[in-house]
Each structure stands twice: as C-alpha cells, then as structure tokens.
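Appendix B, Record 12. Input sequence as logged:
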Amino acid sequence: MLSKMQWFRLTVLVVASQFWASPSLAETLGYESDTRAYNLAHGRVVFMDKCMRCHKTGKKGAPVLSDAADWMERLEQPLDALIEHAIAGHGDMPARGDQDVSEQDVAAAVAYVVDRTRAIIVADINSLPPPAASVSADKVGDSSDQAAIHMFMLILGKEQWR
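Logged structural output:
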C-alpha cells in the first residue's frame, strides 16, 4: 500500500509524463529525454537477460521491476541521468551491473524500465475507485471542475473538501 506522499509523487509523475509526451516539450527537453527514442523491445530483452538477476529479487537493494514504489525516487530524475547511473554505476549498483553490455544496450534497458514503470503507475491510478459524490450540486459547478478539485485535494491529503 502506498503512503499519501508516494501517491502524491505518483500523481505528479503521471501528470508530468503527459507533458513529456507533448511534441513541443519533447523538442525543448531533447528527444533523448523521451523513452520513445529508444528501442524498448530491445531494452526489455537486455533487461530480462542481464539485469533481472538483481532486479527480480531486490538483491543488494536493487529496485524490483514490478514494484513502482521502488522506482519512485529514481523516476523523478531525468532519463539521461538514470542511464548514466546505470552505465557508470551508482550506489550499490556496479557499472553496467557487472555485465558485458554496450552503452546502447544499457540505455535501452533503462528506457524500458522507465516506460514500464510509468505504465504500472498509470494502471494503478486508473484502478482507483471513483470518488464518492458527497458534495451537493449547489456547491459545485461543472462536473469536470469537481473532478479536478477533488483530485488536487486528494493530492494534498485532505479527507474532505468543501
């Protein structure tokens, strides 16, 4: 179960990822910051073949592939920084995971993990139950405004809003 802070980070990440997908922002940030710039199918093969020995079980504190909460803080970093960490090593992770892989293979594997984790986060958010309709119609105008206000109040950790 995710804490309120983790849900907040998830929501911010998902909202931000919608902007990253925008063509105008992709040009500003550089195409290399978008996971679509990489061969994600190849990245999946590399990750499953070379990286799962640690990322399947969390060996030496490695984030587990299917656990979005394990990747939260990492996903707040730019994609190119994550790729550089995987290539050069970072924390307890050795350079290239002590595997014989090229920089392109590592970049594709990192892009795959980032893309997959974002998809898990979106699926988790989409599986949340709809908010209870506890506000009378005279207090709220448009239903889309109500939904937006409700989302931000949930993000801020408010139990009820007026």
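Residues 22-32 have pLDDT under 50 and may be disordered.
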